[in-house]
């Protein structure tokens, strides 16, 4: 291969590398935008839901969601007793606040034992994946999605309580909660049984269930909030232009000045926190800085690569010329 051909091959390789970097950067930016910044669906505050229910004409409302409240308690500190329901007092108090406001509803607490029995009986093909999750909280995440798919109802994390009766929330086929920044939340969910969104969610679990090295990434993107948000965006992309209506996001923004919480309360949670939660929490709160900083770092790496390649190429050229001159000097001496 001649010198010109070698140069063309090197330039082509460099161009291909730059194109690959650009494609990866664009892909990551688009996925990050969908997961962290702009969410599909209809946005409602809790006051919007309450007012819509109050002002609706009698007989004009269609109830989609059954009067069931699901909660999950897996006692990870007592694995010898998978039916243990002895929970921290703050969670018990939050749970009682919901039960007292919904005495006519079915209130179900799913333990480690009853959760696995449900998966084994109703979704046996998923049992191997369910048992194989690296972190126990992933089983809690997956279970809540399957409960929404099979039974429907309202799922509530144990670190959330009830401020008012949840009847007005039963008239939206499927909804999730939205903290107003970052990903959607999976702490409180509502569903009619068999809704196609929850079918897509549960059918996607196996393909997402990878170990992503860091605990927070594995939990969030394999089963948690990142996963749910990504599937939410996928679902809305699938129904775009079709007759299916968009789903609803109920706002639960805790920042000052945000819309009030009409239906729910919050207490201390974080039972699954790992060492990297604070790192990714900071990233989520400074996403714009991280995205632009990452893009700048990527551009700098490409620039350094190109400069290094150019220096090596120039050095190799000078060395080759020097060797040719040495060869000519030897010939002249001879």
From TrEMBL:
Gene3D superfamilies recorded: 3.90.550.20
Primary site of residence: membrane
KW Transferase (keyword) present: yes
Record Pfam families: Gly_transf_sug
Gene Ontology biological-process annotations: mannosyl-inositol phosphorylceramide biosynthetic process
Keyword Transmembrane helix: yes
Alphabetical UniProt keywords: Membrane, Transferase, Transmembrane, Transmembrane helix
A cellular component annotation (GO) from this entry: membrane
GO molecular function annotations of the record: mannosyltransferase activity
Transmembrane regions: 12-30, 287-312
Compartment(s) where it occurs, according to its Swiss-Prot or TrEMBL record: Membrane
InterPro entries attached to this UniProt entry: Glycosyltransferase_domain, GlycoTrfase_DXD_sugar-bd_CS, Nucleotide-diphossugar_trans
Family that this chain belongs to: Belongs to the glycosyltransferase 32 family.
Descriptive protein name: Glycosyltransferase, DXD sugar-binding motif protein
Source organism: Moelleriella libera RCEF 2490
């Amino acid at each position: 291969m001649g010198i010109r051909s070698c140069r063309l091959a090197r330039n082509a390789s460099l161009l291909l590398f730059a194109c690959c970097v650009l494609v990866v950067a664009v892909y990551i930016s688009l996925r990050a935008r969908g997961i962290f910044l702009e969410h599909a669906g209809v946005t409602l505050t809790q006051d919007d839901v309450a007012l819509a229910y109050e002002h609706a004409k009698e007989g004009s409302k269609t109830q989609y969601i059954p009067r069931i409240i699901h909660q999950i308690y897996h006692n990870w500190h007592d694995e010898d007793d998978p039916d243990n329901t002895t929970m921290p007092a703050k969670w018990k108090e939050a749970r009682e606040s919901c039960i007292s406001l919904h005495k006519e509803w079915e209130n179900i607490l799913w333990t480690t034992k009853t959760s696995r029995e449900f998966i084994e009986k109703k979704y046996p093909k998923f049992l191997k994946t369910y048992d194989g999750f690296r972190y126990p909280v992933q089983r809690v995440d997956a279970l809540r999605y399957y409960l929404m798919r099979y039974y429907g109802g309202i799922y509530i994390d144990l670190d959330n309580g009830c401020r008012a009766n949840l009847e007005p929330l039963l008239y939206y086929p499927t909804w999730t909660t939205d903290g107003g920044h970052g990903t959607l939340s999976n702490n409180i969910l509502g569903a009619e049984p068999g809704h196609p969104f929850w079918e897509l969610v549960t059918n996607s679990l196996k393909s997402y269930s990878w170990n992503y090295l860091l605990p927070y990434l594995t939990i969030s993107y394999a089963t948690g909030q990142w996963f749910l948000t990504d599937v939410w965006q996928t679902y809305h992309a699938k129904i775009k232009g079709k007759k299916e209506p968009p789903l609803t996001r109920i706002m639960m923004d805790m920042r000052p000045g945000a819309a009030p919480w009409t239906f729910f309360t919050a207490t201390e949670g974080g039972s699954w926190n790992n060492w990297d939660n604070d790192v990714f929490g900071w990233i989520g709160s400074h996403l714009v800085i991280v995205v632009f900083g990452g893009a700048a770092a990527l551009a700098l790496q490409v620039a350094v690569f190109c400069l290094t390649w150019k220096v090596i190429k120039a050095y190799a050229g000078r060395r080759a010329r020097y060797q040719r001159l040495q060869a000519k000097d030897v010939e002249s001496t001879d």
